[in-house]
């Protein structure tokens, strides 16, 4: 017969058994702990930025000779692809295919999550820069992007464009096509190269975003009528990349911790605001990275799944209302890889053959 002569033993057992559970569940009950930028991280960044500024002032000027010699293969300008990741690069086989045979025309830089060992192979191996923890909707993402820009500026004076990429981004065109869009012949002088960055003023949510660090904290550096926003995903020209890492004034404001975390997202405002203040005429005001905000959820845009992937979708996502077609798109779930590879290897040679032969050229529409 089973009786419970020692109820307290049971109680003790239950308690002991539930202890790990408490530890597992605790983070969900406590308010989330936000990643802070320490003073020493900030100083390390400043040192990196100074090195980049110094390196750039000694190696380049507006009459950088390589621009004039596009035909000479040693001095062709390059695109720096800045991968800001906190997970595996799901589409690395696709990117390998994209970059295949264009090795002297690009560089890859990766800012990862230092607390996670993310396997990096092929063109990605050994390309991780000095990285620090980041958190969505916090100034840590701006820091990470500035570190990527600075490292790429130092690493190769031929890096002339800097394209920010996330693990859920894919290219919509072949490398040669994208290269020709960014470096049309004749290649413009350094100070004439424009940056492709979205710059939008006074959207309905902007007053809340502006005050997310507290009321009136942004003035006098950033009065509301100069506050801008846009997609986090940009392609910056070298002179603007340099401008971004030289900035202290706006960074001092945008780095302030958020009070209202639900509507902070400083990474969607810092770059647009800074470049719109410093050189509005030098920016496209639109982004080259397509994103579908229809039916967005908790600030995340629509994520394309495997069954969505078709050549028609790729054609459709390229179309834009601005001067250029979209060159990249997001977000795609990891399971899209096999279909994307299939499309790029077989069907229409859609993604990665030189499209001058395989695709009808879509005439640019006028800028709106
Ligand atoms: C922002 O938009 C609102 C209404 O849409 C308007 O009342 C306000 O004057 C605008 N502010 C600025 C600085 O343009
Ligand atoms: C955008 O996402 C919605 C679902 O949220 C979908 O119905 C629509 O087809 C998508 N648009 C494009 C252009 O893919
Ligand atoms: C282009 O503009 C039209 C009309 O405003 C809009 O319906 C369409 O969604 C836009 N296309 C893109 C790709 O933004
Ligand atoms: C790849 O594409 C071909 C032809 O379109 C199709 O028959 C095949 O099922 C596809 N494979 C995958 C894995 O999607």
UniProtKB/TrEMBL annotation:
Subcellular location: Membrane
InterPro entries in the record: BC10-like, Glyco_trans_14
Alphabetized UniProt keyword annotations: Glycoprotein, Glycosyltransferase, Membrane, Transferase, Transmembrane, Transmembrane helix
Positions of transmembrane segments: 6-26
GO molecular function: glycosyltransferase activity
Topology class, membrane: Single-pass type II membrane protein
Assigned GO CC terms: membrane
Pfam families linked: Branch
Protein known as: Uncharacterized protein
């Amino acid at each position: 017969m089973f009786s419970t002569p020692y109820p307290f033993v049971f109680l003790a057992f239950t308690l002991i058994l539930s202890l790990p559970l408490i530890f597992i569940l605790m983070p969900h009950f406590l308010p989330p702990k936000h990643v802070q930028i320490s003073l020493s991280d900030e100083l390390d960044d400043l040192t990196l930025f100074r090195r980049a500024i110094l390196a750039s002032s000694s190696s380049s000027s507006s009459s950088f000779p390589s621009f004039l010699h596009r035909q000479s293969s040693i001095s062709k300008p390059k695109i720096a692809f800045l991968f800001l990741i906190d997970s595996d690069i799901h589409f690395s086989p696709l990117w390998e295919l994209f970059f295949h045979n264009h090795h002297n025309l690009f560089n890859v830089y990766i800012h990862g999550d230092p607390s996670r060992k993310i396997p990096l192979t092929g063109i990605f191996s050994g390309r991780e820069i000095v990285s620090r923890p980041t958190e969505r909707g916090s100034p840590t993402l701006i820091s990470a992007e500035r570190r990527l820009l600075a490292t790429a500026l130092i690493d190769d004076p031929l890096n002339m464009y800097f394209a920010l990429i996330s693990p859920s981004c894919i290219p919509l065109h072949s490398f040669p096509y994208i290269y020709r869009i960014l470096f049309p012949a004749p290649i413009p002088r350094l100070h004439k190269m424009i940056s492709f960055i979205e710059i939008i003023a006074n959207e309905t949510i902007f007053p809340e975003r502006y005050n997310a660090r507290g009321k009136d904290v942004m003035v006098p550096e950033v009065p509301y009528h100069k506050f801008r926003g846009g997609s986090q995903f940009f392609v910056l020209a070298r002179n603007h990349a340099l401008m971004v890492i030289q900035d202290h004034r706006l960074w001092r404001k945008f780095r302030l911790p958020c009070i209202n975390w639900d509507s902070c997202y400083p990474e969607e405002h810092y770059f647009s605001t800074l470049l719109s203040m410093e050189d509005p005429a030098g920016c496209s005001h639109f982004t080259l990275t397509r994103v579908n905000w229809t039916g967005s959820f908790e600030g995340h845009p629509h994520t394309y799944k495997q069954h969505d992937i078709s050549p028609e979708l790729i054609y459709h996502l390229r179309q834009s209302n601005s001067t250029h077609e979209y060159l990249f798109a997001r977000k795609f779930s990891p399971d899209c890889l096999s279909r994307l590879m299939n499309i790029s290897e077989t069907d229409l040679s859609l993604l990665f053959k030189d499209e001058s032969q395989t695709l009808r050229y879509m005439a640019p529409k006028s800028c709106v």
